[in-house]
Amino acid sequence: MNIIMIITIIISFLCGSIPTGYLITKKFRGIDIRTKGSGNIGSTNVKRIVGTKLSIITQILDVLKGIVPVTLGIYLTNTMNLPVSADIYLSIIAIATVLGHDYSPFLAFKGGKGVNTTLGAFILIAPIPTLTGIAVHFILRLFTNIVSIRSIALGVTIPVMCIVMKSPTSTIITTTIACILMTFKHKDNLIRIVHNEEK
After folding, report:
1. What is the pLDDT of residues 69-118, one digit of tens each?
2. pLDDT at 119
3. Domain segments of the chain: what residues?
């Protein structure tokens, strides 16, 4: 692993670490979103607390946090000779971005649940699995209003589809890690679902 790779992986982590939901609600509503609702900085909690407009902005920026580092990685793979394959390099960048979002050093290594950033990070690496995950999320809206169920289903769909489509091993591994992280981050929601308390 050369210095360029190390630097871009660090940049990817830091890009993912930008706490958009926290910054947006602080800037435009003067509140700490971590002290409201579920305490999560993601777009779902932002919507519940301050409304749809800022939630959509948060969602877009969280997706872009995933897209931008991977786009940079794609550019570098096309212009430089890297010591690993493009699949491995881009997969590392993608999961580094998701980890940054989930464990932001700007928020004492706490963060969001990673749904939107996962979508952004893998949409260019595994477009069909990612789009399938999005489709599953929206289809489930016909059956449940519980966002956490739909989000976990989205997270599970992506690595399953990567396996079905025989994606590169590195992509399967990193989408699986992202799925596990997403599920773990929803652990409180899962507990509430078990107790029939989730909304």
Report:
1. 999 999 999 888 888 899 999 999 999 999 999 999 999 999 999 999 99
2. 97
3. 3-194
Euclidean distance between CA atoms 156 and 112, whole angstroms: 18
- Spell out the SS3 assignment of the chain: CCHHHHHHHHHHHHHHHCCHHHHHHHHHHCCCHHHCCCCCCCHHHHHHHHCHHHHHHHHHHHHHHHHHHHHHHHHHHHHCCCCCCHHHHHHHHHHHHHHHHHCEHHHCCECCCCHHHHHHHHCCCCHHHHHHHHHHHHHHHHCCCCHHHHHHHHHHHHHHHHHHCCCCHHHHHHHHHHHHHHHHHCHHHHHHHHCCCCC
Residues in the chain predicted with pLDDT less than 50, given as ranges, are none
- Is residue 82 within 8 A of residue 2, CB to CB? The reply is yes
pTM: 0.93
The pLDDT assigned to 1 comes to 64
d(CA 121, CA 123): 6
CA distances from 145 to 53, 63, 119 (A): 20, 22, 20
Structure tokens at 125: 């690496």
Size (the chain), residues? 199
Residue 32: which region, alpha, beta or left (left: phi > 0; alpha: psi -120 to 50)? beta
pLDDT at residue number 133:
97
